[in-house]
Amino acid sequence: MSLFRILLFFSLLISLNSSLAASQQKTTSEKTTIAVAKNSQENGTSPSENMRNKQIISLSIVLVILLFFLFYFFYQNNKLKQKIKRKEIKQKILLNVINAAIDSQEVERKKIASFLHDNINSLVSSVGLHLKLLQHKII
């Protein structure tokens, strides 16, 4: 989405540049056209060729700037993607650590429960039998 906006911005910039060049061409005075004509006769080029060369140079500068921004945004996009991947990996590691801690707690609880069920339950039942035996002897 942002790439589309950037391209739209630069296309508007290029069209404004060309319209600005056209308006500058219209607003030049007679003296400058005569001076350009004299210079162009000395250089061997016509005023329309000079204007076309200026437009080509300005367009190429705009394109270079556009390419610079595109590469910059591409670089920043890749940098952000790598940062997001690193965060995701850290989150997965933390999740694995938490799951391992929960699993170890569950194992420990099961050990305690089996110890209570097997050892203490038998002790309580034997104490109950001894108490019943003791009650029968007293009565």
Word description of this protein:
With 139 residues, the protein is mainly alpha-helical. Helix content is 95%, strand content 0%. It is built from three helices and no strands. The chain has helices at residues 2-27, 30-43, 47-138. Helix 1 (2-27) packs antiparallel against helix 3 (47-138). It is rod-shaped. It starts with a helix and ends with a helix.
In a nutshell, what does this entry contain?
With 139 residues, the protein is mainly α. The protein has helices at residues 2-27, 30-43, 47-138. The model has no long low-confidence stretch (mean pLDDT 80).
Question: What topology does this entry show?
Answer:
Blueprint: H1 2-27, H2 30-43, H3 47-138
Cα distance, first to last residue? 93 Å
Which stretches are low in confidence, meaning pLDDT under 50 for 5 or more residues running?
A: none
The count of strands amounts to 0
Q: Roughly what fraction of the amino acids lie in strands?
A: under 5%
Average of pLDDT: 80
State the helicity in percent bands: over 70%
Report the order of strands and helices.
HHH
Number of alpha- plus pi-helical segments: 3
Structural class: mainly alpha
Largest sheet: number of strands, sense, barrel closure: none
What would you call the shape? rod-shaped
Q: How big is the Rg?
A: 43 Å
